[in-house]
Amino acid sequence: QPAASAGQPDESASPNLVQTLAITLLRSFEYRIPLASEVDYSGMKGTQCLGRQSFRLAFYPHAGDWQRGGVFEQAMRFNYGVRLFQSGRTEGDIAPGTSFVDIQPGSLVLSALKKAEGAFVDEHGNTGTGDRYVLRIYNPTEETVEGEAALWFPVRSAAQVTMEEKHVRDLEVNKGSVIPVSLASRQVMSILLTCPTATL
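^ that's the sequence the OP posted. Answer follows.
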């Protein structure tokens, strides 16, 4: 899997002498529903992608398979670049190079950091607790990965929860902000963080 694309993710390599790589740039199609009859959807909006198009591709040669070659991590960097914005001068005390959330090893992926359900103001003006957040990470690899989530802000307690944020088990918190994790292949883990104060 040597290619990354900011558009259609479809590509295939042909095992011929010149090692041809086929990449899907545009999607246009017609369906057969059911297989015995043909239904033409070429006139439907979005099926033909008419007009001027631009494409952004990258090639990343690597040794070994996609997992050991770090392809997923490089593809994430390619598709989700750093976005900058200018702000006014502040009086913060965060040291240069500080990571707000540091997930290790690099094969584990940060998916979300959000307020926990109920930790916001609802349509009636009722407020929930403001000290709970959910950190969500996932393991895209084919192996179990042991790692840790190191947070810039202090954490009083941590617990693994379901997608519905129901308690599964308590997790260890080291040094006040480091949470050891173990994720099976393709696993998504949601972690409920309880902080000393409304940190974020």
